[in-house]
Design goal:
The chain is mainly beta. 4% of the residues lie in helices and 52% in strands.
Length: 384
């Protein structure tokens, strides 16, 4: 007596099937290892009651697989071989970045001998699903994998459902590639943000006991000042000096503490100042520098220091000037001080176009109290 294949398959799926998602659709499918021997690649056999196709995506046990073989179909079921996607690749089309699950291997099998063939060093074979996006992949297109750059040297579209890419190691482009996040040419189409935060009262300042003074803080992105940046303030010793989230500093007890300002959403960007609480009536000097925050290649501009005591400008104090590269790189400095008269100085930007988007730091130091300093960041831009 012949038993119907349909009920037998239903029983098999119910008893042996595991929960999977095939192209996002939830169903039961029996899964077994493709071989009894241990391999470098994770290959499995999948059988399902619904149609399977080469290139289908299967989510199984929190891993993603790609059906890479031809599919054996009969009236009631389909069977195919799937391989675990061991990498996610970002491909960049003129600033539009798309991510793909891929099977990446450095060696493959010979269809003639059945033996493993090692690929030349620095070469890999990538298998991806054939879809609208992957059909746009072109020869010489670059991408990153495990922080190493590759480029496509060959494209095989002969097998329906999947595309195989032959790729070789490429060179890193430090100007454009986001190596950390494995995205080639990212900064060619996106703006790389370089944030900076400055407390404009130098590295040391005084606050009178039981009085409150504001911090003078600014933040920049690529040298351009940010309007109303979210900043978080902390004191190293709130029992000596307190600070609120508007940057108001109050002297609580005689002593000294550090006040740190951080960009709230980029906390690695920060600036610190030492604050000393002094008796009321003590001179409390501060300095401000006025002048253009942007200097173009080869041009000059003047900067003036204004000295204050308890917030009132005084004219019996003087400063010394110094200039350095913001990134603290060794000389030559990307600018120079060409003249200094009283509490004013003239700064000239260098003529090198390579200084574009770099910055200088102009420092004024109070002669009578060198602990009182102020810095001004000057962004450098190309003339044209």
């Amino acid at each position: 007596m012949t038993r119907s294949l349909g009920p037998m398959l239903d029983f098999f799926l119910r008893e042996k099937g595991e929960l999977v998602h095939i192209n996002g659709m939830r169903q039961l499918a029996p899964i077994q290892d493709a071989t009894n021997t241990i391999q470098m690649t994770d290959e499995k056999i999948i059988r399902a009651a619904t149609p399977l196709n080469t290139g289908d995506i299967v989510d199984y046990r929190d891993e993603r697989y790609l059906i890479t073989s031809q599919v054996d179909q009969n009236e009631k079921s389909c069977r195919g071989k799937m391989r675990k996607c061991n990498q996610r690749l970002a491909l960049n089309w003129n600033g539009q970045v798309k991510w793909f699950d891929a099977v990446v291997e450095a060696r493959t099998f010979s269809t003639e001998t059945g033996k493993v063939i090692s690929m030349p060093e620095g070469n890999i074979l990538i298998t991806v699903q054939d879809n609208t996006d992957t059909r746009g992949i072109t020869l010489s297109q670059r991408f990153y994998m495990t922080h190493q750059p590759f480029k496509v040297t060959g494209i095989d579209r002969t097998m329906n459902g999947i595309i195989q890419l032959s790729c070789t190691l490429d060179s890193i482009n430090t100007a454009y590639d986001d190596v950390e996040h494995n995205i080639a040419d990212r900064w060619k189409y996106e703006i790389a943000h370089t944030y900076a935060l400055h407390i404009h009262q130098g590295t040391m300042a005084h606050v009178p006991l039981n009085e409150t003074i504001p911090l003078n803080v600014s933040a920049t992105d690529n040298g351009n000042e940010i309007a109303h940046p979210p900043i978080t303030y902390t004191s190293s010793d709130p029992s000596v000096i307190s600070v609120d989230q508007q940057g108001q500093v109050m002297g609580i007890a005689l002593g000294q503490a550090s006040i740190t300002a951080k960009l709230t959403y980029h906390p690695a960007v920060q600036s610190t100042i030492e604050k000393r609480v002094v008796e009321t009536g003590t001179h409390i000097y501060s300095i401000a520098i006025t002048g253009n925050p942007i200097l173009k290649t080869g041009q000059s501009t003047s900067y003036v220091s204004h000295i204050y005591d308890h917030g009132t400008e005084v004219f019996d104090q003087s400063v010394e000037w110094s200039l350095r590269n913001q990134d603290d790189s060794t000389p030559p400095t990307k600018g120079s001080m060409t003249a200094s008269t009283g509490n004013s100085v003239t700064v000239k930007a260098g003529s090198s176009s390579g200084a574009n988007n770099k910055a200088l730091v102009l420092t004024a130091t109070l002669v009578s109290d060198p602990s009182i300093t102020i810095e001004k960041t000057i962004s450098l831009k190309n003339l044209f």
